[in-house]
Amino acid sequence: METNGGAEAGAGTGVGAGVRLVPWSDADAGLLRAVNAPELMDHLGGPESEEQLVARQRRYVELSAAADRPGCMFRVEVLPEGRAAGSIGFWETSWEGEPVYETGWTVLPGFQGRGVATAATLAVIAKARAEGRFGALLAFPSVDNGPSNAVCRKAGFTLLGERDFEYPPGRPMRCNAWRLDLARQAAPNEGVTAGA
Question: How many other β-carbons are positioned within 10 Å of the β-carbon of residue 15?
């Protein structure tokens, strides 16, 4: 469903929360600071500096504003009230020589455990399918990040196994590699249960 330039998901999908995805804008700098909290960045090497946040905000806005963009970053709003609950996006990358999309998300503490991340991920999958540039969407949560790995499972991703990464650059990280085939149309509610 499309509303106000965003995608809605959740209601009627078996996940606990309905969400709307709104393309990232200059107005979302405060949300970026909120998701940079130590408890939310624990699996990603810790909070970023102010300089890093300014650069990330600029990248998010540029990606989301480009007409020919390979992906988009979004503010996640919980419905029906429209309160900002976190961020999610998908962007172009390469995996084993294949051009693919990658996705990642963060949900603010007050909205965790309510299905927000799963609903947002389902909405991003729909957006990536609709964009149609690449055949796969990948996610790389830390092996220690149980909730994000559960979101991948509930959203229909296939676990490829553990991999070593550097994120941020210079910091070793052990991740699970998850892949979703965008060419295959998922059945409604496939792999989705309440409460992510």
Answer: 28
Q: What is the pTM of this model?
A: 0.81
Beta bridge partners of residue 94, listed in sequence order: 99
In this prediction, residue 190 carries a pLDDT of 41
**What burial letters (b/e) apply to 115-144, b meaning 16+ CB within 10 Å?**
bbbbbbbbbbbbbbbeeeebebbbbbbbee
DSSP 25: -
What stretch of H or E contains 101? strand 98-107
136-139/98-107 β-pairing: parallel
Of 87, 74, 80, the closest CA to residue 128 belongs to: 74
Q: What is the mean pLDDT of residues 12-32?
A: 81
User: Which tokens sit at 92?
Assistant: 């172009």
* Eight-state DSSP code of residue 13: T
Contacts of 83 (CB under 8 A, 6+ apart): 77
Let me know: does 196 contact 9? Beta carbons within 8 Å: no
pLDDT at position 167: 66
Max CA pair span of the chain: 43
Q: What are the residue ranges of helices labelled H in the chain?
A: 29-34, 38-41, 50-65, 116-131, 146-154
Torsion from C-alpha of 142, 30, 19, 38, nearest 10 degrees: 30
